[in-house]
Predict the structure.
Amino acid sequence: MKICFFIGDISKKAGTERVTTIIASEMAAIGHEVYIMSLVNSPKAGYDINEDVKIIALKNGSGNNKKNFIPLINEIRKTVKKYKFDVLVEADVILRIFTVPACLGLSLSVISWEHFNFNNNLGLKLRDIARKLAAKHSKYIITLTETDRKSYLANLKCRAVVKAIENPLVFYPDEYTDCTKKVVLTVGRLNYQKGYNFLLDAWKIVSFKHPDWTLRIAGTGELEQQLKKQSQELNINSTVNFLGQISNMAEEYKNASIYAMSSRFEGFPMVLLEAMSFGLPVVSFDCHTGPGDMITNGEDGILVKNQDVEGLANGICKLIEDEALRKAMSLKARNNIKRFSKENILCKWNEVFQSIDTKNK
């Protein structure tokens, strides 16, 4: 089968690009003819990729896409006709804006892959329009959570088959935390979505009770200076470390005992998969969506009401004060996260591709 994954920018290093290159590489490894078409003219992938995967970089997608809309549509259409793909997998539903007109009348099955939660359009009205187009014109819509699958079915008239397939666990480390270090870790962009202002407010409560513990924040972003200022104003900067961009996250995971997530909203946070695979029990807001699909509350982590700062602080303190509970949750996190193994997730993708192949015969 000829499969083309269509992505915004293949050179970008983020969750969508990472998981797309993983699935594309695995499909190529089992014998499919696989391509990745990049909207932005970037011929080199940001992540390692199977050498059999061919990259197609569109020439008209690097500038003003509103201005270049017609040339871009024509280029996509010519590419699809030239290579005669059996399946086009859009690695972001918003790309449906381009592919509906580009593929009009062509014999092609389209899979729209939703990487964000349905209740958030990230400030782009086009995303709402694209979701309606996908519901009407796509063969499948793939969501990352069962919650989002239900949201699509409840809010849109879906001709497409809507199926939930989680992101895969990228690797399962042999070495993991022993949960004895007095460190709470969090990882992510320092932006509005991640809600680190809530985490710092919570840490004020935690550090008053446990001044010998440290909060380590890995990542950069537009709110970095604002968050550092907040840390100083709360008088907690002596127990908060802003690490910046970290190249070797494995060491950070192994040297922490608790993972904290304070996001206002998520899709399917890959960082939770990583943290739990290293045996870190998680204390997280039960935001829409992601944490509640990955954490079994009270077993391998603690979920608290979204944006409940005191609840977040109390959850962290509970694990700090109970080492036996912390270590028990650590082992369960390692075990429970195996359900997202690459093998299990690839089986679900194979079922989708096989169903399309069967229908096309």
Notes: The longest helix spans residues 342-360. The chain has a mean pLDDT of 94.
